[in-house]
Amino acid sequence: MRQSKKFRKVLLIIAVLFFPLLSFNCGLLADEVKVTEEVRIRSEIRNNADFNSSLNDYQNFAGDRVRLNISEKWNDSAKFFASVQHARNTGTTPDFISLYQGYFEMGKVLKFKVGRQEYNLGDNRLVGNGNWTNSARSFDSVRMDYHHGNTDWMIFDAKLVKTFNQPAGSDQYLYGTYNRWQINKFNLLETYFLGKYVMFGGAGNRNLNIYTAGCRYVYDRKPWYLEIEPPIQWGDNGRLIHSAYAYSIVGSYEFKSPFKPRLQFERAFATGDPNPNDLSDNTFDNLYPTNHKRLGIIDYQSWKNLDYWKIGLELKPSKKLTVNADYNFFKLAEARDAWYRADGSIIMQDPTGRSGTDTGKELDLYGVYKINDNLTLSLGNATFYPGDYVKKLKGKADPSTWLYFQIEYKN
């Protein structure tokens, strides 16, 4: 049965890839067929993830991802796009070949997009493609976009595409509307209403059904930048009543200098659950975000049960090189709720609340060098210094480190 499913998947991918080429040869193509590829290789070293240096948990691994993309345009208002992806972490996960994207797009002012596709809403704090991970994230979706003047309106219904490391029996759906209004050259306002439904199956009412409403305001007029996003949530988490909120504030100022130094500031908060034993759920649901680099690059944080501050400095010594240094401060919003990783999983929890809320601080140093339009190099290092929360809960609080080097090619 497993071999049969794999065979059917291969046939589907072959059909998707060769459909545009076949239509081109049959004279059905109005404009062109375009084939591109993406290759990404990343090596990582992670040490002391358990915050206990007396135990050896040193990890050294590499991940690679290859995408073959094919697009076809019949005319200015019709498009087909497909992206087949091969992703793996060497020595830890099996080879994973999948249809990452495959959709038809029709229309101009009123546009319809049907098929497997990415979603990147706003700054990706709630919904993004999770591109830092090897397999990334896409949805099987129906989407309608309307564009008029300086406004864009989108309504969609989507189902999360499962990857090899996701459990069976938990179908996840995302739907709603996302609207964009470019007020003027310097001011942008986005509003949204999003629904998330997770069907866990099994006995009892364990399904998740929550709603998120909010807005995102951006002021971008050099040398100043300001971004504010305050979402609220309500709904049901199984038999629990869900009610939560969050906010993020990002600001920066760019100084006049050959290196274009930019001083950055960030404040983020997301509610946690003060009492895990009552009938309410107050932990903010981070939905489907791209959290990497937004809450520290070591990925020990999610936008849930979080009290966060950051100060950072960005330098651009040349047009090709960008260097960043960030110092992050982390606390739990509620001591009895869990500490959540970037992917939403739990790192640790003290249901009594006696360990406090000080999870730690993080120093990040990272840079990107763009060799040319096709080739980019990235290098980064993060050191996480655990706080009193970790020491009280585990008895040890030794620093955790992470180092990466990445090569990315796109044509």
Tell me what you see in this structure.
The protein is mainly beta and about 400 residues long. It has a single domain (about 1-410), classed as Porin, CATH 2.40.160. The chain has two helices and 22 strands. The protein has a 20-stranded mixed beta sheet that branches. A hairpin with a 2-residue loop joins strand 12 and strand 13. The chain is globular.
Query: What is the helix fraction of residues, given as a range?
Result: under 10%
CATH class division: Mainly Beta
Number of strands: 22
CATH architecture: Beta Barrel
Q: Which segments are poorly predicted (pLDDT under 50) over 5 or more consecutive residues?
A: none
The largest β sheet comes out as: 20 strands, mixed
**What is the overall pLDDT average?**
90
The number of domains: 1
Question: What can be said about this structure in brief?
Answer:
The protein has one domain (2-410): Porin (Beta Barrel). Helices cover 8% and strands 55% of the residues. The protein has helices at residues 2-25, 388-394; strands at 32-47, 59-75, 78-89, 96-106, 110-117, 139-148, 151-160, 171-182, 187-199, 208-221, 224-229, 232-237, 240-254, 262-270, 280-281, 306-315, 321-331, 338-340, 346-349, 358-370, 375-386, 400-410.
